[in-house]
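DM from R.C. (forwarded with permission)

"hey, sorry to bug you on a friday — could you get me a structure for this? deadline for the figure draft is monday and I only need the backbone to look sensible"
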Amino acid sequence: MADLFPDGLANRLGPLKIVTRSRYLGHHKGTHRSTKTGTSLEFSDFREYHPGDDLRHIDWNVFARTDKPFIKQFLDEQEMRIHILLDATKSMGFEQKWDFARQLAIGIGQIGLKSGDTVTFSTKNEQQEYFFRRKGALQRAALKKFITQIEQPTLHGDFTDYALRHIPKAVTVLFIITDGLEPLGKWEQLFKRLPGICRDCRVITVHDPSEEEPQLQGDIRLLDMETQQAVEVTMTPRSKQQYMDRKSEHESKFLSLAKKYGIQTVRAEVADGILDTVSKKMRLVGWVR
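My reply, with the result:
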């Protein structure tokens, strides 16, 4: 069995860090600068001394010049809490989407762990729920092993119906990896509620080339992976174009809904590969640096 996420790939992504504009960070020390002041070594500002303040933080040089006590303030560095939610409905098993989606989850998770952040991951199959929670660079191998061993997606129904139940509380950055094929009405219901759970929500939509422009001709029988319903069709240039137009319309409306509710999106093409998706596309929109 081929290695889903080779060490060489992990090393290429190693220098990256996940960034956020969210002011909500965890309560534990980390590597991300908070808008609060705290006890790091990087100076922030002065403020007047108030009874009860730590005398060790008085700047005696300023006191000598002004005859007033001022307290040194330092930037507070805290951890982020990163959650990755993976769509495991059956359509995600089409062609190479599942392997690519798991690679994205591993890559994002390892970037967070290397930065000292708390990373959680969740998904759900027909028979089992999966949840991972770790912190620290030494846990990167554990994350890779956990996600690699998840079998092919088997969940029936719509991803949007269960997504909210699998997002933990107090998340700084939320990554949702999906193909986005659920009805637009259900996506709108989900998007409405996500900002109340996490202020920095990011959706990565996964696309496979054979899904974008099917290489099919003649009389064929198509089977819906989600509902198992079959339909007989004659694939002509016209019908193929109609399919592509409808898919494009769905994706356009999906992006409009996401923008309406402040949800950020990135389109991830299997053909582009994990490295370009993370280090180029995600960097371009300011998700990593």
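R.C.: lifesaver. The domain at 7-20+79-284 is CATH 3.40.50.410 (Rossmann fold).
me: no worries. Residues 92 and 98 are 6 Å apart (CA to CA).
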